[in-house]
Each structure stands twice: as structure tokens, then as C-alpha cells.
């Protein structure tokens, strides 16, 4: 029986190492701003626990403990929804077809969360998460060979290196000058319906800025959990399940 | 950081110190621009990945005979109706759970047949009951008393090889006739010298992270070896 390509040195190439660096700086910045890291791995739950314990109880004495929590159980979308606060980070270890993780990654912008997706095989759609750390080896047994362990160990190590550069942990100005910046531009923001509207009140919708009343006339009928594009207090359209991800 | 003056040094080896200063000697104390930091982080990731790959390859070579022997014995026991119990502490407990999952639910449509294996950290009621009532060092031993018999297999994953709850569990496993497999790092710790451990895989590194990465691959190889032995059985 062959061993997935883990013995050779080429596991982390130039591109993946750059992805790891970017993900680590994002994570350090979010932690510095008070984030909690929520870890999911529906098909391989021990990986979620391993990531969480890595951050909460560092193996290197003197490294600060950081808030990280593994989320497990039957309804991961609901569990993550109720756990996440704006500014938090959601990390999933899952393949690109995992339904709960796909749903959570699509909703995360409405919850104000940054996303990090670790997996192997076929890649998620472009833009499916803020940071994608991917091993292209299609062997379905790869999750049990230590490849993911290496990735999240490096994520932890590099995140702690970033803490030694406090000047770089404040959000960079460039984060808010991109033309796709949802917060600053005129582009629609993603919202998730909490409660459908009644009378003139409009629907109660959760966005990255909190909950707000939104006129859903153009998108009705809407139900709790529906994703909407919100612009100037108005839902422009409803996003159907698993449509291409909104730009972020 | 104290690494100023070593700005061009390559990434170093294992992490034994209390700070990643030792790991990243090329990062100096001065703040630099973000792109420079990102470049350093990426270079460090590649260096550590290469270090991890070299350790994994070295470990597989060093442990090849042990993997073959343990795989054959596990296969023999599974055929005879034996079952596998895995355990460990912290991150190693999760790696032990992943290994049990690989045996019990091997992925892939044309995959190997599922074999009975469980992680002994899966049940928080049992863990907290034992930890609270009889003490943490008995959390695994008492589960083996309740569940395991002479045809079974106990697998403990550890970086130190010396955690008290694991060595106590191995002593109990020995008394009950289980086959015992230890995963350790550094110099093998107490596992390496213990008469209670039938096979001790030692990953010769000082880094907890690199040890765990190599142990995961060793566990995978052990599983693969069990299945190649089982295929041999069915062909006879």
C-alpha cells in the first residue's frame, strides 16, 4: 500500500508557504484584536481538537495561551452561528465537498468572521474562504498521515512569530482601500436572516456590523438562515444555496 | 527577540527553548514591513516542512522492522477477534483518536475493511468520572480493566514516552495480556525501557511538533502494514 506523498520534501511548496504566511499574519492580527478561533473538522474531529489544544495550551513554555475552541456535534452550522462573534476566525479541516463547512464558509462574512480552510484533494471554489491551505494529493487517507498536523503546527508556530512584531499586528491601511472592501465600498454586504419581517419592520438580518432591520421587498419571501445581499437598508437579492461565493 | 546579528542564518532545528527566538534566528528585533515578515514566515514554513519530511523519512527507515513486526501481530490479533484501544494526552490524544478512526473507518470507496478500534479519550463522562474519583493517572488503565482482554491491543501516543497515565495503562495492559504499542519521541522515555511495552516506536527529535508529525505517519504505516498482512491471510 503506497504512502501519500508525505515522505518527499516537497509537501510545502512556494505557494503553500505563502498561503501559510498570510494566514498566520491574519490569525495573529485577529487574536491581537480579541478574536476567538473556532475549529471544525466534521469528518476528522480529532483535528479540530488538536488545533484548539495547540493554541490554548502551547507546547513551548512561555508562549501565550490563546482562545481556541473545537466545535463538534450534530448541527455544526447552528453551533458555529451561535458561537461566532464579529472579528472571530473560523478554521475548518475538511474536504471541499463537506456540506456543513461549505455552508459555514458562505455565511461567515455575515457573521463578521474571517475564514481559514485546511484540506486536501479537489480545492474549494476560488474565494470560498479568506485563506485556503491545501494539499493537492487526492488520496482520501491523507488526513490520517500527519499532513494536516504539519500544516496547523506551522500555522501555530508562524502565528506566534507574528506576535513578536507588534507593529505589524494592527490592521493595515491597505485592508480598507481595496475596491472589493465590503465595509467601505458601495458593494452589497452579506446578511443572514434572523427573523423574517413583520408589517413595516422589515426582516431582522445579521451582518458583520451586527443585527439590523432590512427591507426585503425585493427578496421576499425570506426565511431564517437565508443569505441576502444588503445595500442601503435594502435586500437586493437572496443568494441561493451553494451559488458561487460572494466576493470578499 | 534576541536574534539580531543572525539575520541570514537558516532556520534551526528542534525547539527546545522557551521561545521561538531559537526557531527563527533570522528574524531580528527591528520592525520591518509586512512583506518582509511574510517572506520570512514562508521561508521558515518551507524549512520546517523539509525538516519534518526528513525526520519522517528517517523514522520510517529506522522503524521499518518494528512496523513489520507490530503489523503482523496486530493482524493476527484482529483475525482472532482482538480489538484496539488508543490513548494519549493533549495533542497526542487527538493523533491517537485519528489513528483509531483510520482503523475503524478507513476512508476511500475501495478501502480496507474496518477494524474495531476506539480512542479512550472519546467519552468525557468516563474520563471525568475516573479523573475525579480515582485520579488522572488511572483514566486509561481503568478503562482497559473494564473493556480489554487478552486478545486486544493497547496503543499509546506520547512525545515524552513517560506520562504517568500512559505507563500505568501499559502496566495494566501487560497484566491483562494485551499487545502494547508505544509511540514516543526524544530518546523514547520510559516506554523505551519498559517491559510493559512490546514495541516502542521512537521518533528521534527534540521538537514536540516534528515528533507528532512523524508519529502520525508511522501510525498510518502501521495501519497499512496490518492490512497487507490481512490480505496475505485471506490469500492463504
Fold and architecture overview:
The complex is a heterodimer of chains A (248) and B (236). The N and C termini of chain A lie far apart (42 Å). In chain A, strand 9 and strand 10 form a beta hairpin. The longest helix of chain A is centred in the first third of the chain and has 19 residues. In chain A, the strands form two sheets. In chain A, strands 2-1-3-4-5 form a five-stranded parallel β-sheet, with helices on both faces. Chain A folds into two domains: 163 residues, Rossmann fold; 51 residues, SH3 type barrels, CATH 2.30.30. Chain A contains five helices and ten strands; from the N terminus they run αβαβαβαββαβββββ. By secondary structure, chain A is α/β, with parallel strands linked by helices. In chain A, helix 2 packs parallel to helix 5. The relative contact order of chain A is 0.14. By secondary structure, chain B is an alpha/beta fold. Chain B has two domains: 60 residues; 173 residues, Glucose-6-phosphate isomerase like protein, domain 1 (Rossmann fold). Helices cover 51% and strands 10% of the residues of chain B. Chain B contains eight helices and five strands; from the N terminus they run ααβαβααβαβαβα. Chain B has a five-stranded parallel β-sheet with strand order 2-1-3-4-5, with helices on both faces. In chain B, helix 3 packs parallel to helix 8 and helix 5 runs parallel beside helix 6. The longest helix of chain B is centred in the N-terminal third of the chain and has 29 residues. Chain B is globular, with a radius of gyration of 20 Å.
What separation lies between the terminal Cα atoms of chain B?
63 Å
Number of helices of chain A: 5
Instruction: Write out the strand line-up for the largest beta sheet of chain B, numbering strands in chain order.
Output: 2-1-3-4-5
Computed over alpha carbons, the radius of gyration of chain B is 20 Å
What structural category characterises the helix and strand content of chain A? alpha/beta
Count of structural domains of chain A: 2
Give the total of domains of chain B.
Answer: 2
The CATH architecture of the largest domain in chain B would be 3-Layer(aba) Sandwich
Mean model confidence by pLDDT of chain A: 89
Main sheet summary of chain A: 5 strands, parallel
Order of helices and strands of chain B: HHEHEHHEHEHEH
What is the assigned CATH homologous superfamily of the largest domain in chain B?
Glucose-6-phosphate isomerase like protein, domain 1
